[in-house]
Amino acid sequence: MKSVAEKLRMFQRKLSLNLSSPSVSIRNFQISTTAATESSAGLTEEEVKQINGVVPRLCSSNHLKEAIQLIAAAVSTANPPLNALPLSILINRLALEPDLTHHMHLLNALKFNPNTGNPFVLIPIAKMFVSSFFEKGHPKKAVKMFQWVSRPDFPGGVANDSGFYAVLIDGFCKSGMILDALRVFRLMASENLVVGNDVRMCVYRGLLREARVNEALELNAALDYCARGDGGAFGSKEVVDLLDRMIASWVE
């Protein structure tokens, strides 16, 4: 049985042939990311170089499914450093798509692969996606990404990554989507994740822009109370309860 590295080499060669010859259909060649479980061997420098050469060509020629399959298989191979792969090129191209079909194809392929179905792989990629959504002016896509990460079946439970949620809150506040920022903030508070001053100020200023002055002051006071440690666990619960009331009143 061929190793993953051998299959990737074959995939790269066939992709190169297909892209240079219009008479050969690239869609006739498929690779399953589950093949990554067959070998723990990592990619060679030459294979990484080849992947970095093929993926941009796939993206520019609109062969997104094949680009996703190649990236998913590469990430599944002994988990190479994400920054060694052309993920940013693929993600920037996918950000131009009208829906999240291709995004979910990649994320779910990684999620249900035993080699990559963990937050150490999924959250950095999800963070790259939401950053691209905000940069391209598609904040509603970031809402769906937050919902995907918050699903009960997300590997490892709620992601313990304050940086990921900070990107979401900052983007939602800058997009005028304060209610969505509060929902992310509420999740952080319920999981006792570290809330930096920049995140606090982002939410505070967002509430002020919405003329919700009393709520902004009340939330700020509750967070100060927690930061001092005066209330212990009660302080954290107080913040969550306050956010629940704010969210409920917002959607009424």
TrEMBL record:
<dbReference type="Pfam" id="PF12854">
    <property type="entry name" value="PPR_1"/>
</dbReference>
<dbReference type="InterPro" id="IPR002885">
    <property type="entry name" value="PPR_rpt"/>
</dbReference>
<dbReference type="InterPro" id="IPR050872">
    <property type="entry name" value="PPR_P_subfamily"/>
</dbReference>
<comment type="similarity">
    <text>Belongs to the PPR family. P subfamily.</text>
</comment>
<protein>
    <recommendedName>
        <fullName>Pentatricopeptide repeat-containing protein</fullName>
    </recommendedName>
</protein>
<feature type="repeat" description="PPR">
    <location>
        <begin position="161"/>
        <end position="195"/>
    </location>
</feature>
<keyword id="KW-0677">Repeat</keyword>
<dbReference type="InterPro" id="IPR011990">
    <property type="entry name" value="TPR-like_helical_dom_sf"/>
</dbReference>
